[in-house]
Design brief:
Structural class: mainly alpha
Shape: flat
Number of domains: 1
Low-confidence stretches: none
Distance between the termini: 38 Å
Radius of gyration: 17 Å
Number of helices: 1
Order of helices and strands: H
Number of strands: 0
Helix content: 10-25%
Oligomer: single chain
Strand content: under 5%
Mean pLDDT: 80
Length: about 70
Protein backbone atom coordinates (compact mmCIF):
# COMPACT_ATOMS: atom_id res chain seq x y z
CA UNK A 1 0.00 0.00 0.00
CA UNK A 2 1.24 3.50 -0.76
CA UNK A 3 -0.17 7.02 -0.33
CA UNK A 4 -2.01 8.48 -3.28
CA UNK A 5 -0.38 11.91 -2.96
CA UNK A 6 3.06 10.89 -1.67
CA UNK A 7 4.55 11.25 1.76
CA UNK A 8 5.53 14.90 1.48
CA UNK A 9 2.07 16.42 0.89
CA UNK A 10 -0.73 17.41 3.19
CA UNK A 11 -3.79 15.18 3.22
CA UNK A 12 -6.39 17.29 1.40
CA UNK A 13 -10.06 16.87 2.18
CA UNK A 14 -11.95 14.85 -0.42
CA UNK A 15 -14.27 17.82 -0.95
CA UNK A 16 -11.28 20.00 -1.95
CA UNK A 17 -9.99 17.62 -4.61
CA UNK A 18 -10.94 17.96 -8.29
CA UNK A 19 -13.96 15.92 -9.37
CA UNK A 20 -13.20 12.49 -10.71
CA UNK A 21 -15.45 9.80 -12.12
CA UNK A 22 -15.25 6.03 -11.97
CA UNK A 23 -16.99 3.37 -14.02
CA UNK A 24 -19.82 1.76 -12.09
CA UNK A 25 -20.52 -1.18 -14.39
CA UNK A 26 -24.15 -0.18 -14.83
CA UNK A 27 -24.39 0.45 -18.57
CA UNK A 28 -22.28 -1.10 -21.32
CA UNK A 29 -23.27 -0.82 -24.98
CA UNK A 30 -21.09 -2.06 -27.80
CA UNK A 31 -21.63 -3.45 -31.28
CA UNK A 32 -20.56 -7.08 -31.46
CA UNK A 33 -19.09 -6.59 -34.93
CA UNK A 34 -16.46 -4.13 -33.73
CA UNK A 35 -16.16 -5.02 -30.04
CA UNK A 36 -12.78 -3.86 -28.81
CA UNK A 37 -13.35 -4.04 -25.05
CA UNK A 38 -15.35 -1.81 -22.77
CA UNK A 39 -12.55 0.54 -21.73
CA UNK A 40 -11.12 2.11 -24.87
CA UNK A 41 -10.54 5.66 -26.10
CA UNK A 42 -14.08 5.53 -27.57
CA UNK A 43 -15.81 5.48 -24.16
CA UNK A 44 -18.59 8.03 -23.75
CA UNK A 45 -19.42 8.91 -20.14
CA UNK A 46 -22.93 8.81 -18.76
CA UNK A 47 -22.99 10.57 -15.41
CA UNK A 48 -25.23 9.07 -12.75
CA UNK A 49 -26.03 10.20 -9.23
CA UNK A 50 -25.08 8.02 -6.25
CA UNK A 51 -28.64 6.81 -5.73
CA UNK A 52 -28.73 5.41 -9.28
CA UNK A 53 -25.24 3.94 -9.02
CA UNK A 54 -25.59 1.43 -6.19
CA UNK A 55 -23.41 -1.57 -6.96
CA UNK A 56 -25.08 -4.71 -5.61
CA UNK A 57 -22.53 -7.38 -4.72
CA UNK A 58 -23.99 -8.77 -1.51
CA UNK A 59 -27.04 -8.73 0.76
CA UNK A 60 -26.04 -5.46 2.47
CA UNK A 61 -25.78 -3.73 -0.93
CA UNK A 62 -29.17 -5.16 -1.90
CA UNK A 63 -30.76 -3.88 1.30
CA UNK A 64 -29.25 -0.42 0.68
CA UNK A 65 -30.63 -0.37 -2.87
CA UNK A 66 -34.07 -1.53 -1.68
CA UNK A 67 -34.09 1.20 0.97
CA UNK A 68 -33.18 3.84 -1.62
CA UNK A 69 -36.00 2.68 -3.91
CA UNK A 70 -38.54 3.10 -1.12
CA UNK A 71 -37.60 6.73 -0.49
Amino acid sequence: MYPLFGFDTDNPRRQDLPKCYLPNGCIFLAPISSFDGFYTDKVIPYLMDEKSSVDIDNQVDFNLAAGLLLR
